Every structure is written in structure tokens, then in C-alpha cells.
């Protein structure tokens, strides 16, 4: 491994935009994380009383009107509205004028899991209650997994390589890795990250098919990964958008290493739960090797935290295999928002970057009874001050997708 080559090719994160249950706006989200303020509550977008799952992480008070162009509103779903709003914040945060950059050197790659389920449900209802003439022409694109990437490309004049990664929760890390690859091959700036918004009856029923959603009605104990009483996860909506640039581009604008760099990545696929520990262990090791970082130099792990006994055991075993039992602080701030699917990993990356900025590992709200056999040093009760130079973010998606991303404060 040529460490100097790896570090020189790292992608610099210069802007962050957040639309999440923990807050609309990066700093609001960060304040919620530090305070342990949960965004999980009873579903309000529709009456959930007839469903076994009644809690979710909804983005409080978010509407697209006033945040994105009016003409785009009827053409797109809520998940795209969220991504456009987050991208606007991220670009403003990065202080970049896209008009000053060559359009073919601006790219977009996002993650998506559900697509525009709410938009699709509304149009199907119009079809069945009326006739085909009532169905919007935009149904053909608004539901599509790549709709957000396309709308971002159009809105921001990004005519470089564009794409979408569909790997459920793991897709956000894989999209960041694709962004890093694009920056290595001639692209100057990549808009990446992702959002999801499937908290409608159709979307919720689809998620319930996994059998992994928490049916608890106690907000404080509904999503408690690594706890001996863990019984599933809470679904959520929203996510984060990141602006990534080449080191040269960031340096030209006087931003240095920005919030941090995307230093290493690896992905794998676990065909069954029995393979989970082995695959995740190998993915972590390959991500560290790609970054040129030793396990001893990782200062914190942002866990995937599925919230079921089998998956929690597999993840804790993989972390212990690489770092030793209780060898590194582990956290899962996603318990405040729920699992956001295509938006979940980007939000974890954003939170990890903010943690490096502030030198603190956020605590995990909810779990309280951690089996000693797990061997994880889960940060509980309050944030833990730690000088963070390198952080590992983990993500797994339904069906076996597995991904790991190494972030560093500097190249």
C-alpha cells in the first residue's frame, strides 16, 4: 500500500447539508445529537393505528415549498425535495460558485433505497379511483431511484458523470466511494450523499416485509441496538448531502482539508446472516488497507446498529475481531433518527465529520443493557471527548450489502 498515493487521491468534504428527523440544517442536527434529542415519535403523515409499526423518524415541519423551485414541486417526490434542500445548504456551506466551474467537471452520485413511494401511491390512488387521465405524467420519473440525481444534475448544471447507488443503508457509503473515484479521474466537484422518504402506507408496508421493524411504542426503547432487549429498528426519512472536491480544488479555494477526507472504502456482500461477521470483518480490514490506516489509529466507529440480536452480534464480533474487545469507542447516533435507508449512511458520515471537527464522540441514546459478550465500548449517557483523527463508518443494507468508509481529519 502506497500511503502517500492514497492520501493524495483522497476526496475532501467541503460542504454538508442535512434534512433529518434530528433537524433541518446541519447545526440544528448537530445540537440535537449532542443533546441526545430524539426525532422519533408517532407517525403523523398518516394514521398508523391500523399498522403494527407506529413510530418513525419524521423530518419536523419540512415542506419543499419555499426551499426549491415551485415548478419542481409537482414533478418530484418528498425524498427529492429533501435532497434538493440539503444540497442547497451543502453548496452554501462549501462556499462554491458552480457557475465558475466547467460544467463537465461537476458530477452527482446519490444513494436511494425506496424511490418516490409517496408520489407513486398518490398516483395509483388516482388511477384506481378515477381513470388513467388523472395520473400525472411525472409518475414515470418521480418514483425512479435516479430521480434525485437527475434533478440535482439539472438544478446545479452538473454535466459530468452522474449516477445512483441502490444498496439500501450501505448505498450512502458506496456513493461516497464513487464520488472519490470520480474525483480521481478528472472530475473537480461531486455532489453526493442521499435521502429517502418512504413513510406512507405503501412505503411502510413494503418495509414491514423484512420483519425487522420495531413494533415498540415506547419512544425511548423502540430502537436500542446492542441492547439485550433489542427487537428491531425504527424507520425514518431524510438524510444528508455532501460536497466533495479534489484536494487541489479545495486548496485553491483556501479550504485545506475542509471537514475531512474520504480516505478509504471497501464493500462486500453477505449472502446470509451466518456470513455477516466474516464479511464485515473483511470489509473493515480492506477499507483500512485502502486508507493506509492501521486499526490502532482508528479513534471511533460509527456502527451500522441494525437493532436485532443476530445482526448486532455479527457487527460487534467484527468490530472486536479488528480492534480487540472494547478496543475502540463505538457509537450509533442514528437511534435519534431511525434508519434512513439511502439517507442513513450519508447522515452518519456528516455526523462523524462534525464529531471530528468538535473532538467528541456522540453518545448512543436508548440502549442501557449491553451484553458483556458483545465486547463493544458503546458510548452511552453523554458525549465522550476524544481527539478524532480517523473514524470508521459502517453500513449494511437489507439482503447482504456491506460497506465501510474511513474518514480522516487530514490527508
From TrEMBL:
UniProt keywords, alphabetically: Acyltransferase, Transferase
Keyword Acyltransferase: yes
Stored SUPFAM superfamilies: Thiolase-like (SSF53901)
UniProt source species: Streptomonospora algeriensis
Family (UniProt): Belongs to the thiolase-like superfamily. Beta-ketoacyl-ACP synthases family.
Keyword Acyltransferase included in the entry's annotation: yes
Domain (Ketosynthase family 3 (KS3)) ranges: 8-409
Pfam families: ketoacyl-synt, Ketoacyl-synt_C
Gene3D superfamilies listed in its UniProt record: 3.40.47.10
Annotated TM spans: none
Protein name: Beta-ketoacyl synthase N-terminal-like domain-containing protein
InterPro entries, sorted: Beta-ketoacyl_synthase, Ketoacyl_synth_C, Ketoacyl_synth_N, PKS_Beta-ketoAc_synthase_dom, Thiolase-like
Amino acid at each position: 500500500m502506497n500511503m502517500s498515493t492514497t492520501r493524495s487521491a483522497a476526496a475532501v468534504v467541503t460542504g454538508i447539508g442535512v434534512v433529518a428527523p434530528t433537524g433541518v440544517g446541519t447545526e440544528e442536527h448537530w445540537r440535537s445529537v449532542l443533546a441526545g434529542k430524539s426525532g422519533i415519535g408517532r407517525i403523523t403523515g398518516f394514521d398508523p393505528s391500523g399498522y403494527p409499526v407506529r413510530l418513525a423518524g419524521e423530518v419536523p415541519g419540512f415542506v419543499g415549498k419555499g426551499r426549491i423551485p415551485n415548478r419542481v414541486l409537482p414533478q418530484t417526490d418528498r425524498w427529492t425535495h429533501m435532497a434538493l434542500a440539503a444540497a442547497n445548504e451543502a453548496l452554501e456551506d462549501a462556499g462554491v460558485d458552480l457557475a465558475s466551474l466547467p460544467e463537465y467537471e461537476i458530477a452527482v452520485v446519490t444513494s436511494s433505497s425506496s424511490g418516490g413511494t409517496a408520489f407513486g401511491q398518490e398516483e395509483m390512488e388516482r388511477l384506481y379511483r378515477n381513470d388513467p387521465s388523472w395520473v400525472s405524467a411525472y409518475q414515470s420519473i418521480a418514483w425512479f431511484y435516479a430521480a434525485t440525481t437527475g434533478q440535482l444534475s439539472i438544478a446545479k448544471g452538473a454535466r459530468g458523470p452522474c449516477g445512483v447507488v441502490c444498496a439500501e443503508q450501505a448505498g450512502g457509503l458506496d456513493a461516497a466511494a464513487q464520488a472519490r473515484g470520480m474525483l480521481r479521474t478528472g472530475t473537480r466537484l461531486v455532489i453526493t450523499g442521499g435521502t429517502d422518504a418512504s413513510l406512507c402506507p405503501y412505503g411502510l408496508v413494503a418495509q414491514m416485509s423484512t420483519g425487522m421493524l420495531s413494533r415498540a411504542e415506547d419512544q425511548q426503547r423502540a430502537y436500542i441496538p446492542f441492547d439485550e432487549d433489542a427487537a428491531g429498528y425504527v424507520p425514518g426519512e431524510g438524510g444528508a448531502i455532501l460536497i466533495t472536491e479534489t484536494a487541489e480544488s479545495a486548496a485553491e479555494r483556501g479550504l485545506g482539508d475542509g471537514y475531512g477526507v474520504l480516505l478509504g472504502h471497501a464493500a462486500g456482500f453477505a449472502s446470509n446472516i451466518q456470513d455477516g461477521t466474516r464479511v464485515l470483518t473483511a470489509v473493515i480490514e480492506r477499507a483500512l488497507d485502502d486508507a493506509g490506516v492501521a486499526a490502532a489509529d482508528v479513534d471511533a466507529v460509527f456502527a451500522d446498529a441494525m437493532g436485532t440480536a443476530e445482526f448486532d452480534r455479527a457487527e460487534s464480533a467484527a468490530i472486536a475481531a479488528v480492534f480487540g474487545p472494547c478496543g475502540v469507542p463505538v457509537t450509533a447516533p442514528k437511534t435519534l433518527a431511525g434508519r434512513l435507508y439511502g439517507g442513513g449512511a450519508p447522515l452518519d458520515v456528516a455526523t462523524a465529520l462534525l464529531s471530528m471537527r468538535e473532538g467528541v464522540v456522540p453518545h448512543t441514546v436508548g440502549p442501557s443493557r449491553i451484553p458483556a459478550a458483545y465486547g463493544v465500548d458503546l458510548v452511552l449517557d453523554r458525549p465522550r471527548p476524544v481527539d478524532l483523527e480517523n473514524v470508521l463508518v459502517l453500513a449494511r443494507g437489507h439482503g447482504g450489502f456491506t460497506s465501510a468508509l474511513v474518514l480522516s481529519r487530514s490527508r
